[in-house]
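Risk register update: the risk of archive-format incompatibility is retired. Evidence:
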Amino acid sequence: MAIEGQQPEQRQSYPGSTDEMNPEPHDEMRGYVGRDLLAGRKALITGGDSGIGRAVAVAFAKEGADVAIVYLDEQEDADAEHTRRLVEAEGRTALVLRADLAVERNCQDVVRQTVDALGGLDLLVNNVATQKPVQDFAELDPEQWDRTFKVNIYSYYWVTLAALPHLPKGSSVINTSSINGLRGNKSLIDYSATKGAVNALTYSLSQSLQERGIRVNAVAPGPVWTPLIPATMGEEKAGEFGTQVPMGRAAQPDEIAPSYVFFASDRLSSYYTGEVLAPIGGETLPG
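Archived output:
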């Protein structure tokens, strides 16, 4: 399951590919046995082609849900198709959508296509994200700032707003935050700012949507070994990624996905809303 210590130094072109990672991440939920916790549910997962999104898609399918995933561009086609096959292998419907969710119209379109294809929507996982480290705040240009916010927080707003008319009582919205949204990161300033916004959005939406019977929660992982890491970090940083946490390694996506199943399932988390769950490898935070 785990990557022990350092992985080899490596670099990919953005947005990254699972097949080119060394070692390949554990993101297929092998050995996970579903208990029909999400039987009959209809899920939309943004950033669902690989990494955490893939593991969540497969876990949801194993629990009985039909799943739509959204991914960015052609470089991720192979990853998306692999995720489709994993979902369909569980006997569930899989819808694969390519779209840049930094564009509001695209966010509306993927919701419409999901509802049409799956026959409804009651689980929404806002998971898509981008990052680009900088060595100094002065290097952070307005174009990068704008793009990071459009992908990492505007899309969460746009997709959720488009989904709202379709979400019945008992629906669950799960947002992907990050440890960096809880304590910041000097080289991921814009990314950390968006993840802090995701937390505040989660708190606020949970209050706003309570009367509709919709629960809103967030998962804020620490370092996770996904294609985004070798695609956005230098070779040396990718090799050292995750070694700073007390457990001494990055998490595997398979280790994070059960948190999403927990929040998606009324049987497990019916009294949870407005919560931020942080699987961060033993790091402790004040407050």
